[in-house]
Amino acid sequence: MDKSIFQPYEDEIQALEEEIRLLTEKYEDIRQESTFFSDEEILKAIKSFQRETQEETKGHESLSDLKAQLESLETDLSFLMKFTGFHFTSHSKKTVEKTRNRTVQKHRLSGKCHSLSFQLQFQLLEMQNNEKVSAVVSDLSIIMESREDSNVSKFVSSIEEHGDLLTFFRSLSTYAEWYEHRRRTFLHFK
């Protein structure tokens, strides 16, 4: 038989296979993305999870043990929020690239430290060699409400340049605490 008769069908099959591959990749990307959750949505999810675990815990840990663990985690989270002054309001994560020993993710994070709002956007490159995992932050972008202070602007620019998130969070915690003290003091004298 003449192969030219089947060629349009083979081309159509290849086009459909490519479309299926692209749609599968898009679906995986969407599935891996985190969405923004409000405190209310988080509480609904916790309550829903508690209801589900009640049904599934037959034969597993007792429900009272799970409730105790959840309360313990909530207490720990509350303590950390009070201790550090950080309250994260949203987080999203999108996997940009994933191979066997390398993962690139794009993160967006927003929240407050005491009364100062902030937003971060960065890429996180995780590489695994043998049993070691190393992470590198790049493309860091920081938005803060108190950028009118030139010292804060210089500090934020330096942090963005070096991609040093740990220093940012440590310094923001101290700065925001004293910023709140100064604000209260000035309000007292008004």
Automatic annotation (TrEMBL):
Organism in which the protein naturally occurs: Rhabdornis inornatus
Keyword Coiled coil assigned: yes
UniProt-listed GO biological process terms: CENP-A containing chromatin assembly
Source domain of life: Eukaryota
Protein's UniProt name: CENPP protein
Coiled coil region boundaries: 6-33
Alphabetically ordered keywords of this record: Coiled coil
GO cellular component: chromosome, centromeric region; nucleus
Coiled coil listed as a keyword: yes
